[in-house]
Write a structure and sequence with these properties.
102 residues, alpha+beta, OB fold (Dihydrolipoamide Acetyltransferase, E2P), 2 domains
């Protein structure tokens, strides 16, 4: 029974690292794209842990709409304040990383 549990944990850990590696490779090797877009929404996501206030975190999210596609990016608090809803411009991104919006 212990051997079965041990093997299951090894398989789960291996699958986790494979998924992380695939995500990293996709983000690293994806092409840089530039599209016309509009700032559709922006919000702050608060995350917390079970350990009270030790691991509270704010994620600043900006959502762009380009045609029928919505793209969400995490940005710094400083950048977050610079985006206005319904602002139009040219969005440059690579994978899940925002490069520029003019």
């Amino acid at each position: 029974m212990k051997m079965l549990l041990s093997n299951a944990l090894i398989v789960l850990a291996l699958l986790f690292w494979i998924v992380v590696a695939i995500h990293f490779v996709k983000a690293f090797f994806s092409p840089v794209k530039t599209v016309k877009a509009v700032v559709a929404d922006k919000y702050i996501r608060h995350t917390a842990s079970r350990f009270d206030s030790l691991f509270k975190r704010k994620m600043h999210i900006v959502v762009f709409k380009s045609g029928s596609k919505k793209l969400s990016f995490g940005v710094s608090p400083f950048s977050y304040d610079g985006y206005a809803i319904n602002e139009k411009g040219s969005l440059t991104y690579k994978g899940n990383r925002l490069i520029d919006f003019k």
